[in-house]
Structures are given as structure tokens and as C-alpha cells.
Write a structure and sequence with these properties.
InterPro entries: F-box-assoc_dom_typ3, F-box-assoc_interact_dom, F-box-like_dom_sf, F-box_dom
Radius of gyration: 23 Å
Shape: globular
CATH superfamily of the largest domain: TolB, C-terminal domain
Organism: Brassica campestris
Helix content: 10-25%
Protein name: F-box domain-containing protein
Number of helices: 5
CATH class of the largest domain: Mainly Beta
Largest sheet: 5 strands, antiparallel
Domain F-box: 18-58
Strand content: 35-45%
CATH topology of the largest domain: Neuraminidase
Number of domains: 2
Pfam families: F-box, FBA_3
Length: 405
């Protein structure tokens, strides 16, 4: 349901008397990259159509039906953003191997190089500059980026030694509230200690162009720090999930932050998950609208298994465990690959790690229903330098023409 009912009589001289609702219907069907160029057509297009909330909402709704695969690439000290059409049912292809061509987003970043790239949320991406000094929110589709205001850091005094320590930013997360249609950034700050979890503070920033962006402090009952056993952060249906630990070095838990209400809750992990002793041996992912945790088993000890858990009951901390056995040929296809996540169409996806030639990057799709693999080659990275190149992969990326400024 659109918030604004378009009038058939709302026209402009520069639009040759074409009704605005007809123009909007046309524009929602063109590529997002073209929308950024259309801003230069006329002031009428820029202010009366492209910046309208109802247009950007409708475009986002249309984008949800045509998801893409998003590739942030670090190459030769620079950041490049690419994407390609996400295959609907890759295992339906008659060929053993299929190919897709990734195209670049023409986004010009400042002089600093964003070292950390966080998971895209509803078309926007949170980037963190070198040494975590600068953080920006970027919209690849429009080419815009917004530098976030500085976080207010306080000094805390240790009671025993009376020593003052200044807070530092531990982590930032980007989330989206589909009900309120708002993007928010969650920032966790704390004083660092080698032996214990220090008190941390949480602040929230709402990304609204019509209002002044100010960090607001919110309450949380517990103090925790980032877990190094479970990687990734993911926003599902307005709830941001990430892993943390209440006690340094002990078991992990899942932090749930409701973007709309700005309230925290916590979910205990399954006992089986505590047996993994490797850093980042587990990965959060979206399993058909529910939280999933994928286990990156040690390929030396475990041969030919896909293991993951799905959250069944958050209130009672209940998980279901799933295991799929693979034949040696299938296992070798993903053994040295990186788990990416689960596509909206139900396939597990891995990306290749090693690129011997510019065209050797590929994705492996595994259908849980048919229990078959499909390899999809990704082309289009020829102009990037082969050495010192790192490719990240994100599924179900939706292009958003929301303007940040």
C-alpha cells in the first residue's frame, strides 16, 4: 500500500504532460544505475519524482523481486563494488557450468580506504575506514556515501587504581526496520581489558535526511564483547543478530537487537556449537526468514558434511540441527571455499577462494531439496589486478534508490 495516491492530473511542462504516476511506473522498471543519471535530467525529475518517499518505497518493493549478488572487492589498495543478477534456480540449467557477468557500480570513495565491509542491509552498506577512524554508509545504486558523525566517547575511572580509561568503539552494525521504514546504526563502545569484559555503552543513530543525525544512548542489561567463534551479523525482519560473549573466552550467545523498539534480547547457542574450537568456525545466515548458524567443520577431520542449526524458538533458546552428507566429488567442490549464505530460493552458496586467472572466480549452489550442486562462473573482474585481490560475496542484495542526503 502506497502512502501517497498519485493524481492523473499531476504533470509537468518538462515531462510532455505525462502523468507522474505513469513516469513512476516506468522508472521503477529501469536499472537502479540509470536512476542516478536521471537526477540530472531536470529539477522536476530530481525533486518531484526521484526524491519522493512513495517512489523510493515502490522501487524497493520491485527490487525485492529481482535480487542480485553483491561483490565488494579490495584490489590494489582500492575498493570496487560489483553486482550481478542472482540466478533463480541455478540447478535448472542444462549445462553443468553456467556463467554470469558482474558489472561495477560507479561510486567514488574518499581518499581513505575502507578496510572493513559489513553486510548490506536493504541496499545500503556500512564501511569502516583505516584504523576505524572514519565510517560511512554507502548506497552503491545511487553512488552516494554519508560520513557518520563522530561518536561521543567518555572516560571511565577504575575504582581501585583511580586510572582513567577512555572508551573505544568496539563495533558498529547497520539495521533496517521494515515497519517504520528506517535505517539505524548501532554502535557499541567499551573500555578494553585483557582479562575481563568491561562495561560497554550502546548508542543508536537514525539515518533520516530531514532530521539532524545525533547519536542516542540506549540501555542494555548486560555487558558483552564480540565473539570470535561466530562470525557475521545479519538483519532479518527488523531484528539485528550478532554473536557475543558475556565472559571473556567462554561460550558464545546471540545478541538480538530490535531495530524498531531499540530493545536487546539474547539467545543461548546449542551445546553442540561449543565443541568447535576454531575462530570463526560458525557463521550466521538467513534461513528462510529465520536465523541459521552454519558450521565450518575442519576439512581434515570431517569429510563430506554440511552442518547447520536453525533457530526454532527464540524465547526458549531451541535450535534444530541439520546434517547433509556429500559424496567426495561434491565435497571437493566446496572443501576450500568460503560459505556465503542461503539464497532466497533455498540454495546454500559458497564462493571460491583462490583465483588463478581473472575468470576463475565462481559460486557453488547446493539445493537442499534436490541435493545437487551447480557451479556458476562469475566474469567481469578482468580489469582488476589479480594479486592482492579479495572478493566478498553477499546474496539477495536489493538495489535501493533512497537518497542519503
Amino acid at each position: 500500500m502506497l502512502k501517497h495516491e498519485f493524481s492523473r492530473h499531476e504533470t509537468s511542462q518538462s515531462s510532455n504532460l505525462i502523468p507522474v504516476d505513469v513516469l513512476i511506473d516506468i522508472l521503477t522498471r529501469v536499472p537502479a544505475k540509470s536512476i542516478a543519471r536521471f537526477r540530472c535530467v531536470s529539477k522536476f525529475w530530481a525533486s518531484s519524482i526521484l526524491h519522493r518517499r512513495d517512489f523510493t518505497d515502490l522501487f524497493l518493493t520491485m527490487s525485492l523481486t529481482r535480487p542480485r549478488v553483491f561483490f565488494p572487492i579490495k584490489s590494489d589498495g582500492k575498493l570496487f563494488l560489483y553486482s550481478t543478477h542472482q540466478p533463480h534456480n541455478p540447478d535448472d540449467d542444462d549445462d553443468d557450468d553456467s556463467s554470469l557477468v558482474a558489472t561495477p557500480y560507479h561510486t567514488s570513495f574518499p581518499d581513505y580506504f575502507p578496510c572493513d565491509i559489513y553486510s548490506p542491509v536493504c541496499g545500503l552498506v556500512l564501511l569502516q575506514g583505516c584504523e576505524r577512524k572514519v565510517r560511512v554508509v554507502c548506497n552503491p545504486a545511487t553512488g552516494e556515501f554519508l560520513t557518520l558523525p563522530k561518536v561521543l566517547l567518555k572516560e571511565k575511572t577504575k575504582l581501585i587504581t583511580a586510572q582513567k580509561k577512555k572508551e573505544k568503539i568496539a563495533r558498529m552494525y547497520l539495521g533496517y526496520d521494515p515497519m517504520g521504514k528506517q535505517f539505524k546504526v548501532l554502535c557499541m563502545t567499551r573500555t578494553f581489558s585483557r582479562y575481563e569484559v568491561r562495561d560497554n555503552t550502546h548508542q543508536v543513530l537514525t539515518l533520516e535526511s530531514e532530521k539532524k543525525r545525533v547519536w542516542r544512548t540506549i540501555e542494555c542489561k548486560f555487558h558483552f564483547e564480540e565473539s570470535y567463534r561466530i562470525s557475521g551479523d545479519i538483519c532479518i525482519n527488523g531484528v539485528l543478530y550478532f554473536a557475543a560473549a558475556l565472559t571473556l573466552g567462554l561460550s558464545s550467545m546471540i545478541v538480538c537487537f530490535d531495530i524498531g523498539s531499540e530493545k536487546f534480547s539474547f539467545i543461548n547457542t546449542n551445546n553442540d556449537m561449543e565443541r568447535g574450537d576454531c575462530m570463526y568456525s560458525f557463521t550466521l545466515f538467513n534461513y528462510k526468514g529465520r536465523l541459521g548458524i552454519y558450521h565450518e567443520e575442519d576439512s581434515f577431520y570431517q569429510i563430506g558434511r554440511i552442518v547447520f542449526w536453525v533457530l526454532e524458538d527464540a524465547e526458549n533458546h531451541k535450535w534444530s540441527k541439520h546434517i547433509y552428507k556429500l559424496c567426495p566429488l561434491e565435497w571437493n567442490l566446496i572443501r576450500y571455499s568460503r560459505f556465503v549464505g542461503m539464497a532466497g530460493t533455498g540454495e546454500f552458496v559458497w564462493s571460491s577462494l583462490y583465483k588463478d586467472s581473472p575468470n576463475s572466480f565462481y559460486l557453488s549452489f547446493y539445493s537442499l531439496e534436490s541435493e545437487t550442486f551447480t557451479k556458476v562462473n562469475i566474469q567481469g573482474f578482468d580489469q582488476l589486478k589479480q594479486h592482492h585481490r579479495f572478493i566478498s560475496t553477499y546474496l539477495d542484495y536489493v538495489e535501493n534508490v533512497k537518497w542519503l542526503m
